[in-house]
Amino acid sequence: MDFLSAKEYIDGLSRYGSVLGLENIESLLERLDNPQDKLNVIHVAGTNGKGSTITYIEEVLLAAGYKVARYSSPVVFEYLEKYKINGENISEEAFTKAVEEVKPHIEYLNGSNITPTIFEVETALAFKIFADEKVDAAIIETGMGGDLDATNVCKKPLLSVITSISYDHMAFLGNTIKEIATHKAGIIKENVPVAANGCNDEAISVIKSTASEKNSSLWISSRADLEKGTYIASNGKVFNELNTKMIGSYQSENVALAIESILALNDNYSSPKGKICFNISDELIKEGIKNAFLPGRFEKISEAPLVYIDGAHNPDAIIKLKATLENNFRGAAKLFVMGVLADKDYEKECGIICGLADEIITITPNNNRGLDGRELAKVIAKYNKNVSFCGNMKEACEKVKGAGKELTVAFGSLSYLGKFKKCLKTYL
After folding, report:
1. CA 12 to CA 220: how far, in whole Å?
2. DSSP assignment of 270-316, as one string?
3. What is the 3-state secondary structure (H, E, C) of 77-141?
4. In CATH, which of 3.90.190.20, 3.40.50.1820, 3.40.50.150, 3.40.1190.20 is domain 299-427?
5. What's residue 273's pLDDT?
6. What does DSSP say about strands 41-45 and 88-89: parallel, antiparallel, or unpaired?
7. Concatenated DSSP letters for 193-231?
């Protein structure tokens, strides 16, 4: 088996759809000798900010000299972004080897009418690869929700991290912040510390209650003042001279949560207790935050013309993107490129941000959940009449090149941003 055939095999598992629940993955992991139980897991759930928060935590741990793995989704540029060790994608060879070893177990289960989904298998592969590599810590991002997410098979993680919670995936997680937060709080385990974004009172109330029930210490973040480079942590510790490469008003929350996460690790594992030992200095925390960078999160991809891409894909993320634009680019003539998934609240998203643009281009993301860009244009027209549909990425990039706007921002779904970035470089 080569990489392409291994990837083809995994892609073929999409026929089993997406399900919530742990039965399938538990059956698969048992046959793999439960690699997740051999890992020091930092488990991360939330609606927005997971990718950035994970990146900050990852870079701090790397600065401190740990061997760190990371499993996250969705990917922006290439498939193996999903699996990283020490900041680098795993090799095609390592992925292929893992698929070869896991495939017989998948087929055995299929014969017993147990059909692991693509996300369940990818998650199992992550646990196996990271355990085989004997990483010091594995940062694992949930796919959706928390309690019934395939990643929630870790019985005793080092730390549970819950980022900003807002409305998304309501068909699965519920129609209120309380319901959604209850699902996310499902990653909290007995006597395992929790770091959580405290900027939503309704969400943090649920998290506080769950942490109390589980006898879990709780580290609640607020917002860092990134203009001044300061953050006062929940334990009173003051951080100065904070600096991040990642632009965006929302990074004030993500930086703060990452700091609380490291403080929680330091506090709970400062001396060996059967797991890894953490004693990470303030200087190393600041170094890691400074080093952090995540593609697709208000990332500048061109200077002339000035073009950014951002993965904002739900109303809360759109609000934060709008704040970033108003704070940093007020008065600039703006062109938006927008493509969304059909199961998102795109009507609300359009109402929030589309009035800010001088011109808007819509595209259809190359995703089976992608909304036809012509339908999106009809919705946008309610809020901004200067909107047009581009039938392909080449046409969209040519329009960006010829528009002459001071600022272009492409957003709405991470699923098309990689292709947009690659295509734009061809026409600039």
Report:
1. 41
2. SS-SSS------HHHHHHHHHH---TTSSEEEETTTTEEE----SHH
3. CCHHHHEEECCEECCHHHHHHHHHHHHHHHHHHHHCCCCCCHHHHHHHHHHHHHHHCCCCEEEEE
4. 3.90.190.20
5. 59
6. unpaired
7. -EEEE-S-HHHHHHHHHHHHHTT--EEEE---BTTTTBE
DSSP secondary structure code for residue 161 in this structure: E
**Structural domain 3-291, CATH architecture:** 3-Layer(aba) Sandwich (3.40)
Residue by residue, DSSP assigns 343-402 as TS-HHHHHHHHGGG-SEEEE---SSTTBPPHHHHHHHHTTT-S-EEE-SSHHHHHHHHHH
The answer to whether 68 and 139 are in contact (CB under 8 A) is yes
The helix/strand/coil state of 239 is strand
Neighbours of 319 (CB within 10 A): 19
Q: What pLDDT, in 10s, does the model give residues 356-412?
A: 999 999 999 988 789 999 999 999 999 999 999 999 999 999 999 888 899 999 998
How big is the chain, counted in residues? 428
User: Is 230's pLDDT higher than 60?
Assistant: yes
Q: Which pLDDT band holds residue 275 (cuts at 50, 70, 90)?
A: confident
d(CA 113, CA 119): 18
- Per the prediction, the chain carries an average pLDDT of 92
How confident is residue 172, by pLDDT bands cut at 50, 70 and 90?
low
Write down the domain spans for the chain: 3-291, 299-427
